[in-house]
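Example 5.3 — Alpha/beta hydrolase
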Amino acid sequence: MAYFNLNGKKAYYEVHGESDRTLVILNGIMMSTSSWLPFIPMLKRTAQVVLVDFFDQGKSEYMTENYTQAIQVELVEALLDALDLQQVTLLGISYGGEVAMKCRSSRVSQLILANTTAHTDQTLTAIGDSWVYAAETFDGSVFFKATIPPIYSKGFYNDRIEWLNDREKQFKKAFKPEWYQGFIRLVRSAESHDERKKLSEIQMPVLIISAEEDVITPPQCQNDLNASISDSKLVIIKHCGHAAMYEKPTEFFSLVVGFMLCGQDQFTL
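Solution (predicted structure tokens):
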């Protein structure tokens, strides 16, 4: 358990394993460092793994005013500097991918963008609004029913309904008003996200992971990323929704590890 300070605010991070390779993982909007812990034993066989909670997330400090994603980019770049990390593979999923594509640190040598988008369009804004309205109730069941069904594919949701029902019960117990308020600020911080004109600035190997049944950031979003980034490759995971790491962990992490080990030139699909 470790913290570092950025502009007077505490940010939480974890470092797992030792290796010449480093994988830094950026969370989705409803995630935290603990979301990745089941995968750490596997990942640290290949790389040193660095996890971090964004502000208003997990164990990092909560904000009191609205902000843009620029503050999260600053957090990530400050962490890379504080740990003196070199030749980093930066993996961002969903919200974390939006932050990752804004990062211009020379310490990053590879980028993995999963289930993410170059800009917040009207559909994604409407989804965010519905999540905010649900969060404002401070009711775990209301929030769960508004946010979780669209995150998973139809097949996964139907097959794992007992597990999902248990998750709903956990939502009711775990989330306090402070968490919901932080979540609302995170959603609002993504409303101005638009990197479409800056994607050409990304000059490193990029792996883009898409999911066939993602309705939050559909495959067209990743197709657009792939068309705009010069050194990128796109992989679409079949029969999978927005939470690809949970629905298809074998496929998801095989892509992540393979890309880290092989690099762009040798990485074949």
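Remark. The radius of gyration is 17 Å.
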